[in-house]
Write a structure and sequence with these properties.
Layout (H helix, E strand, L loop, with lengths): L1 E5 L5 E7 L2 H16 L9 E8 L3 H18 L2 E12 L2 E11 L2 H4 L7 E12 L2 E9 L1
Antiparallel strand pairs: 1-2, 2-7, 3-5, 4-5, 6-7
Helix pairs in contact: 1-2
Length: 138
Amino acid sequence: MSIEELEHTADLRFRVRAPSLADLFAEAARALMQTLYADLRGPATEIRPIDLESGDRESLLYNFLSEVLYLSEAENLVFTEAELKVTPSPPSVVGRLVGRPFDRALHAGGTEVKGISYSDLAIVEANGEFCLEVLFDV
């Protein structure tokens, strides 16, 4: 699994690779958290359920990341782990986000993300691996 930051003129673009769709979604959530917060360390004390369906994998990923962003901001939480099951047909993601309350001394210093972009969002499967490129509006 890997997260790679790619060049972009105005926003933050990442390439994420993982061996399964569930791992790909979890890694994409980790890329989002690493963007928002300077440090993801600390004991996990909070759990939030995730249960989403969508028309295709890309819109499911978009909805999932948007929900992660919303929960993080609205509930002042830093998610350090995503335990997920992703079903391809119909496209759905079920599981939980695990994390802790935001601590200014530990987590401050990241980059504000205004939203997830649909621009060029695509999930590709090749050579036994899933890959996506995602753009975060900053």
